[in-house]
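Many introductory courses stop at the sequence. We go one step further.
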Amino acid sequence: MKKTIPTIIVILVASLITYLFISKDKPLNELYNIRNDAVSSVNKVTGLNIRPRIDEVEEGDIKIFTFNNVNDMLNHSVKYANYLWKNEGFYITTNYNFGKKEDGKIELAKNSIDDGKVLRIDIECYTNNSFIVILNLINGSLIIRNTNEINTNE
């Protein structure tokens, strides 16, 4: 019995050290997946070498990626939003001082691969050099209307 407890402690410590080394070398995600949709990750687009904290809500329909202690946080977040808008088919649906103030936010959206769903991405910046990216799969569909069309009823 006296040898069992020290052996268990040694095994636990060795397991913990092995886990820490393996998780440290794990590559950063290139894509964020939410059900059948995939979006390029912040790390892939901006080259940011910070592993985000990831939280999932509502059985995976909402994923929150939190980036803390980011030097030049505004640059990384704006670069990511611009990439989604210009390269991945997202539309800007809301913009509140994004890129102009440290506490700005933006919402982008596009129709999901799944019928009747919209993939929405919120990017919120904070004054403590951190920002979050929230992926949200919601019910609905985007209908884009050309505001330059002439109204023939006038």
